[in-house]
Design a protein that fits this description.
Elements: H1 3-15, H2 20-34, H3 38-58, E1 64-65, H4 66-83, E2 89-94, E3 105-107, H5 113-123, E4 134-141, E5 145-152, H6 161-167, H7 172-183, E6 192-198, E7 204-214, E8 216-217
Parallel strand pairs: 2-4
Antiparallel strand pairs: 1-3, 3-8, 4-5, 5-7, 6-7
Length: 218
C-alpha cells in the first residue's frame, strides 16, 4: 500500500468508531429518571455531556492527546461504576516519565475504550452485585512505545474469539489494524494481546488486555 492508501485506510477505520456506549448511558439515565433518582440523573448528565464533547472532538481526528484519551476512559469507567449494584474499584497508573507530557503525547482516538468496556461488561460481570470487582489501567513507556495494560479480576476469557471481537461494538480487529498502520510493517512484536491470567494451579485470576502504541510526542 502507498502512504496515501494507508492514510485513507486509517481514516476509514477511525470513522468506524461508533461510541454506542453513550446511547447505553443515556438509556440508563432515562431509567434512573423514571425511578425518581433526580440528583443521580443530573450528575450522570453532566458527566455524559463532558464525555460526549470529548468523544465528538476525538473521533474527528487521526490522533488525540493522551490526556484526553485518559479522561474519556475515566469518565466512561465512572458511568459504568454507577451502573453496578455495589460498584467496583479502579486505578489508572501512569508512568512518572509521562506525567508531565500527557498533553504532548498522541494516541489514536478511543484506542483504550473498547478494551475497558470488555473488562467491565464481561470481565467484571460476575462481580456486579458484590462490589469486589477491580479494574487497573497501567500506562508505561517500553522501548519508545506506550505499553498499555487493562486488567480485571473477573473469571477470565469465557467468550470465543469472534464473540470477544464483536462484544464491545468496536471491533478489536479495528484496534489491531490501526496499530499496524501507525507502527508500520517492520514492527514485529504483537500489538494487541488479550489473555486470561491464571495462578500456579491454573485457576483464572482475571483478564489482561495489552496494546503497544508508538510513543509520539509533539
Amino acid at each position: 500500500m502507498t502512504l496515501n492508501e494507508l492514510s485513507l485506510r486509517y481514516d476509514l477505520l477511525n470513522s468506524q468508531m461508533n461510541p454506542h456506549f453513550i446511547n447505553n448511558a443515556i438509556q440508563s439515565i432515562c431509567n434512573a429518571m423514571t425511578k425518581g433518582n433526580v440528583t443521580q440523573s443530573i450528575n450522570w448528565l453532566n458527566r455524559l455531556s463532558h464525555l460526549y464533547r470529548l468523544v465528538q472532538k476525538s473521533t474527528k481526528r487521526k490522533m488525540i492527546e493522551l490526556q484526553d484519551e485518559i479522561e474519556i476512559s475515566r469518565l466512561y469507567i465512572e458511568l459504568q461504576k454507577d451502573l453496578f449494584d455495589k460498584g467496583f474499584s479502579y486505578t489508572i497508573e501512569i508512568d512518572p516519565l509521562l506525567e508531565d507530557d500527557l498533553q504532548y503525547t498522541k494516541v489514536p482516538p478511543l484506542i483504550f475504550q473498547p478494551l475497558i468496556e470488555n473488562a467491565i461488561l464481561h470481565g467484571l460481570k460476575g462481580k456486579k452485585c458484590t462490589g469486589e470487582g477491580e479494574l487497573c489501567i497501567k500506562i508505561t513507556i517500553e522501548k519508545e512505545m506506550l505499553y498499555v495494560c487493562i486488567t480485571d479480576n473477573g473469571d477470565g476469557i469465557t467468550k470465543t474469539k469472534k464473540e470477544l471481537n464483536e462484544g464491545s461494538g468496536i471491533s478489536l480487529e479495528n484496534i489491531n489494524e490501526r496499530l499496524k498502520i501507525i507502527n508500520g510493517d517492520t514492527y514485529k512484536k504483537k500489538l494487541l494481546d488479550v489473555r486470561t491470567l491464571k495462578n500456579d494451579t491454573g485457576i483464572a485470576l482475571g483478564t489482561q488486555s495489552c496494546l503497544r502504541v508508538p510513543l509520539i510526542q509533539l
